[in-house]
Amino acid sequence: MQRKPESNKWVLGGLIALVLFLSVFFPSYGWRLRDYLSPQGHASSADAVSLAAQNEVLKAEIAKLQTVAAELPSAPANYMRAMVFSRYPLNFKNEMLIDAGDHEGVKAGAAVVFQGVLIGKIQTVFPDTALVTTVFDNNFKLPVRIGSKGYDGLLEGGSYPSVKSIARNAALAPNDIVYAASGGIPYALPVGEISATSTSPDSLFQEASLAFAYDANSIQTVFVAR
User: Fold this and answer.
1) Where are the alpha helices (DSSP H) in 4-40?
2) Can you tell me the distance from the alpha carbon of 112 to that of 121, in angstroms, rounded to the nearest whole number?
3) Which of the chain's ends, N or C, has fewer CB atoms near its CB within 10 Å?
4) Cα Rg of the chain, angstroms
């Protein structure tokens, strides 16, 4: 049985009155009802989901840029910037994975720097990522020099990196800077500072433990030498 035109008019009029009433006294409900009755109601919901997703993407990009600005405010010449992938929950200090690889021109053996300090070298290069071996790796070794006199030594990595094979007569002191002196690494990149010295087990050399001005587990962005 078909509804009479007059009845349809009363129903439509009632709905219009309801929308007006809600819009005036309960605006939020009025807008919801209007969107539901609108032919584009479902499209509006889809648009809202799309906008929410775009908003999350923008927030993630802003967070990334804020990290870069906070940790490395300026890019030195002949270096490229790379972000460090999260290592949670393992949080090892001996290696890190970065978001730059062969496509960006990363080369094995290149120096990796954080705030001007050498923290490691590129070990393995993949198309879009690269694995970095840090100074906290047991296999990391690097010829270095120490202090203003430039005493020679060999940096040996590990949980507690140290400099070995230092001449017995080298006048070392706490806070002396240790810097890179190895081929393939930009010369004089700082590595750390001497915190204490001792004599090697065979009594032929001096050894030095190091102090670092950064927390390896908190690094989120680095520079890679080109």
Assistant:
1) 5-25, 27-37
2) 5
3) N
4) 31
pLDDT single digits (tens) 127-161:
999 999 999 999 999 999 999 999 999 999 999 99
Cβ-Cβ contacts under 8 Å for 208 (sequence gap 6 or more):
146, 153, 162, 163, 166, 172, 178, 194, 195, 196, 197, 198
Domains and CATH numbers, the chain: 5-70 (no CATH), 74-226 (2.40.10.340)
Q: What are the CA-CA distances from residue 149 to residues 109, 152, 178, 182, 220 (Å)?
A: 27, 9, 11, 17, 34
Angle at 197 (CA atoms; ends 195, 199), nearest 5 degrees: 160
Residues in the chain: 226
- Could you count the other beta carbons within 10 Å of the beta carbon of residue 84? 19
Distances (CA, A) of 188 to 161, 166, 180: 18, 17, 5
Predicted confidence (pLDDT) per residue in 165-199, tens digit: 999 999 999 999 999 999 999 999 999 999 999 99
Query: And the tokens for 65?
Result: 């840029």
- 117's tokens: 């300090």
Distance CA 174, CA 160 (A): 16
